[in-house]
Amino acid sequence: MIDNKDIKEVLLSEEEIKAVVKRLGEQITKDYEGKNLLLVSILKGSVVFMADLMREIKTHCKIDFMAVSSYGSGTRTSGSVKILKDLNIDLEGYDILLVEDILDSGVTLSNLKAMLMLRKPASLKICTFLDKPERRKADIVADYTGVQVPDEFVVGYGLDYDEKYRNLPFVGVLSPSVYSE
Ligand code: IMP
Ligand code: MG
Fold this sequence. Notes:
Elements: E1 7-12, H1 14-32, E2 37-42, H2 47-56, E3 62-70, E4 81-85, E5 95-103, H3 107-117, E6 123-131, E7 144-148, E8 154-155, E9 171-174, H4 176-180
Parallel strand pairs: 2-3, 2-5, 5-6, 6-7
Antiparallel strand pairs: 1-9, 3-4, 8-9
Bound molecules: inosinic acid (IMP) and magnesium ion.
Inosinic acid (IMP) is lined by residues 45, 100-109, 153-155, 159.
């Protein structure tokens, strides 16, 4: 069992998350009506959000998945992300919406965006469930943001600590006792 003491504070309850995702889905539905929408989920953190978000989108869309990791800091140039799992769909002509769990430094996403633009999509926007604006290093803003969160380490609803806690149905702040163990 996951110990309740591992979570210092619940930031977003299941009900709050549902309302946020519904609002994003409604906005995306309006904006992408008549377009060629392809939702791209960045594995693994965004899978839970992706699964809920797509069901709140009432216009046609396709989905695909990719996994990336950033190169170590200092060696990064624009567009340098390591692709661990690439997309199956050729992006040309699609209106891409990148679906992310959390926008933190923004380094990964800004590099990924630059790289995907080379594949000539019709458009490319970003939808992030959580945003930690205080931590931003790269010059990037999300086009759709669920909730801004303070600079604390959060888990649940897809977000992990050491690959754990992704299955919590809410978003909580991880207790410092977990990393000091
Ligand atoms: P960045 O924006 O390039 O710094 O990377 C964002 C990635 O870091 C996210 O996709 C998460 O995997 C991870 N991340 C950042 N902050 C948190 C957090 O508070 N909890 C869990 N993962 C986080
Ligand atoms: Mg992630």
